[in-house]
Amino acid sequence: MTALQPVRGTRDLIGEEFRRHHHVAETARRVSALYGFEEWATPVFEDTRVFARGLGDTSDVVMKEMYSFTDRGGDSITLRPEMTAGVCRALVSNGLTQSNLPRKVFYAGPMFRYERPQKGRYRQFHQIGIEVLGAAEPLADAEVIACGWDILCALGVSDGTVLEINTLGDAESRAAYRAALVAFFSAHKDALSHDSRVRLEKNPLRILDSKDETDRAIVAAAPVIGEHLTAAAAAFYASVKAHLTRFGVPFRENPRIVRGLDYYSHTAFEFVTDRLGAQGTVMAGGRYNGLVEEMGGPPTPSVGWAAGIERLAMLLPEAPPAPRPVAVIPVGEAAEGPALDVLQALRRAGVVAEIAYRGNLKRRMERANRIGARAAVILGEEEIAAGVAQLRDLDAGTQERVPLAQVAARLG
Fold it and tell me: Which of 11, 98, 271, 392 could connect to 399 by a Cys-Cys bridge, CB 3.0–4.6 Å?
């Protein structure tokens, strides 16, 4: 019988890969807590309208990549392709839009997109992210970015990673910019790809994101939004950059970073690296002042980012080491009971401890070496009668008799 394999685009996380994955999530959880973020967990699947509203009907995710299905009750359900929309929906669903704003939210978990699997990208993938819900000030934008930078630094992946930022302006700025883009791309309409011709009618800013080589050559000469900013939008952008400098976050400006949906405004940013080939973005986000309203809530200015755990895990300079246990080894059947007492005393003292289920002294010592144990606690009838254990340092090769009551303290 052929052994079953994981579904294409998914994978098992075992051993070193799991330790890398876990380290990324735990580091982000720890650093974001220092900034006052609390962790939320939303359902893995949502009403499809959450993402249709949150990502826009013309986005590639909604049109091509979502795992959507009709459940037995006739409702359209979608496995979440991202989590920002779900967090905004949760804010509204739980009646939190009128109290204790801003809310600072951290999340971590699996997402699902039907796309071609490639380096660092899977159909089930994992993200960390933060959102500040209910803050209109440019300081919120800068603090969100600074938190992301501190997470990258704590992971040891900031070298070779660059923050690129842009502004999308306010509504007036975007309207003027949209008009300029429509005029520019209309003059090149016949040369645009089919997808970009559709976007020209519905969402011209998304043409700037096109991966088509012909489109990209045209985009290179397109207008930039900086030429169309209102005085208020320019001041907001200047304030974000000043705060980033104060936070000590290095950055460079990239006028081609955009977000296609109308509720995005002001700051857009990406942390990019050249260490992952073409898939260079490891963290991306921006300000979205209308998404909570799309979920049925009041206007709620917000800003946040998301990052792929798989990509960050690939950038780690080395995998976190597996914890090295202590092996508890009874010699003879009579020693098993006292050995279990020692085993549990070690665990209660916070020491990783294991006991082999069977085998003589030789075989149990061989297993201790295979699992990378740092020490062995050996108990035979003689040791039990004397109230001691033989404590063997498996790195140094030394051995000493230690009172049973002191074993946990010595190894803790």
Answer: 392
Measured between alpha carbons, how far is 369 from 395 in angstroms, rounded to an integer?
10
Same fold, 16-170+230-315 and 326-411: no
Q: How many CB atoms lie within 10 A of CB 15?
A: 10
User: pLDDT of 354-368, one tens digit each?
Assistant: 999 999 999 999 999
> Is residue 113 marked as binding?
yes
- The per-residue pLDDT for 377 is 97
Q: Is the pLDDT of residue 62 over 60?
A: no
The label of the residue with tokens 């496995």 reads 79
What confidence score (pLDDT) does residue 195 get?
85
347 is an annotated ligand-binding site residue? no
Annotated binding residue at 295?
A: no
CB contact at 8 A, 380 and 331? yes
Residue 263, marked binder? yes
237 is known to lie in a ligand binding site: no
Instruction: Confirm or deny that 264 is annotated as ligand binding.
Output: yes
Name the pTM for this structure. Answer: 0.90
Domain boundary assignment for the chain: 16-170+230-315, 326-411
Task: Assign domain 326-411 to its CATH architecture.
Answer: 3-Layer(aba) Sandwich (3.40)
- Determine whether the annotation assigns residue 293 to a binding site: no
Superfamily (CATH H level) for 16-170+230-315? Bira Bifunctional Protein; Domain 2 (3.30.930.10)
- ∠ CA 246-248-253, nearest 5°, is 90
The Cβ of residue 337 has, within 10 Å, a number of other Cβ atoms equal to 11
Residues 6+ apart with CB under 8 A from 309: 21, 24, 25, 108, 125, 126, 127, 128
Closest by CA position to 300, among listed 49, 75, 100? 100
Give mean pLDDT, residues 27-53.
95
pLDDT of 221: 87
**pLDDT tens-place string over residues 192-232:** 898 888 888 878 888 887 888 888 888 888 888 888 999 99
The annotation status of 367 as a binding-site residue, yes or no, is no
Distance, in Å, from the CA atom of 392 to the CA atom of 224, rounded to the nearest integer, reads: 69
Question: Is 131 marked as a binding-site residue?
Answer: yes
